[in-house]
Amino acid sequence: MSEKLDVLVVAPHPDDAELGMGGAILKFVSEGRRVGILDLTNGEPTPHGSEEIRAAETSEATQVLGIDWRENLGLPNRSLEATLEARHQLAAVFRRTQPRWIFAPYWTDAHPDHVAATQLVEASRFWSKLTKSDIPGEPYHPERIYNYYCVHLKLVPQPAFVLDISDYWEQKLAAIACFESQFIRGREHLQPSFLERLRDEAAYWGKTIGTQYGEPFACREPLGLTSMQDLI
Prior knowledge:
This protein is α/β, with parallel strands linked by helices. The protein is built from seven helices and seven strands; from the N terminus they run βαβαβαβαββαααβ. It has one domain: LmbE-like (Rossmann fold, 3-Layer(aba) Sandwich), CATH 3.40.50.10320. Strand 2, helix 2 and strand 3 form a beta-alpha-beta unit. The longest helix has 17 residues. The chain starts with 6 loop residues before the first strand and ends in a 14-residue tail after the last strand.
């Protein structure tokens, strides 16, 4: 099967893609787009997880999402850096998968891995188009980078757009719930629960666009429209 993708979501850790844009992923898949996720690290160590547990949870969530492709780049958790070596590795993935759109974390965050991930994505996108390099594959330049919000800061985003995910909320929740070691185990005492707070956030963004649930996205570059037809 070809590895060429329409959408590539780059996540610092397994679960970030599901948290930040699980609804959008499901929506893209339903529209017939080829969607992939590249997890940069295995996310371990964590208090209730292990490499084996996280791998099993990721596999389960991937099945729920129904995406075409998922890999892990094997970079170090907790010490992720936008090094030249990592840039070379990621640029090679961009050339291999040739995504039209790349989704990366929002660029401001308290988690250094998330900040480094977006720096790495932006640099690797540029490197991916370079000629006369030793990066495997043919030069390729992804059309756009969009940014999803999966942040560790208590901030209120000012997104470039909000996507209606009302039809996909329950399935997104099911994908997130696969990561029991991260969002359920050890959090049983929280009221409201972690998953209930996610629902409230999604409902807030839905309210801003007049729908039940939404996901916000940012973009450093202006968004171009050929028509107002599809605006809510």
